[in-house]
Design goal:
Length: about 220
């Protein structure tokens, strides 16, 4: 039944897809008793707590700073570097409960909070990492949710890519910093889970998440 709910959620215009709801349907495959509304309500509660703290003048950097303070200093979310390939880092319910995860999972939480604050942001699917940025014209700042909301510029992204791949990238191809669609976002989440379980030799679980990826492609 969960796969059917996932299929219904993604079978609509890309902009109308709820990323947290779709991600929770993915998690429900692993946790059949998962209460979807409970976790959606938690995200809503976090957003409301941040909204109270927002300055009257909502300059992008001020909004980002306020979100960062609440998520990382008050709630203590953090990127899980020590156990990066723990599958729990990719399931949204676990990320919310444990307050840790991989870049794309923490980015999802950040994106949803920003959306509820009427401060739309978009995902940036940089190879080997995942960033977000405000959805504004000529937006030149990026946010790294995995690293406590660190503010980055294009040159910082180039250096980060060089660090990840241990080779110099003199020029950063523009397409690397282009926004991803909701479908692309979810496909990347599912691909992460598939690869984690393949590397663990858990082929049944890997096949399950591959099936979900095929629903996205259809």
């Amino acid at each position: 039944m969960t796969k059917e709910k996932f299929a219904l959620e993604i079978n609509q215009p890309d902009r109308d897809i709820s990323l947290p709801k779709a991600a929770l349907y993915i998690a429900q495959i692993e946790y059949p008793e998962l209460d979807i509304d409970k976790y959606l309500n938690i995200l809503e509660t976090i957003a409301k707590a941040i909204e109270i703290k927002l300055p009257k003048t909502r300059y992008p950097l001020r909004v980002i700073q306020t979100i960062n303070e609440h998520l990382y200093e008050h709630l203590h979310f953090y990127g899980n570097e020590e156990n990066y390939y723990d599958p729990r880092n990719s399931f949204l319910n676990e990320v919310i409960d444990r307050r840790t995860g991989i870049p794309i999972a923490i980015s999802l939480i950040y994106l949803e909070i920003a959306r509820q604050l009427n401060f739309p942001m978009v995902g940036i699917g940089m190879p080997g990492h995942f960033l977000i940025r405000p959805d504004i014209e000529d937006g030149e700042i990026f946010v790294d949710p995995f690293n406590k909301g660190e503010i980055l510029f294009a040159e910082d992204c180039r250096q980060k890519l060089s660090q990840i791949y241990q080779q110099d990238f003199p020029i950063l191809p523009p397409e690397i910093l282009q926004p991803v669609t909701n479908h692309q976002f979810l496909r990347r989440m599912l691909n992460n889970l598939q690869m984690i379980y393949l590397n663990r030799g858990d082929f049944n679980r890997a096949l399950t998440f591959k099936d979900c990826m095929e629903i996205l492609i259809e």
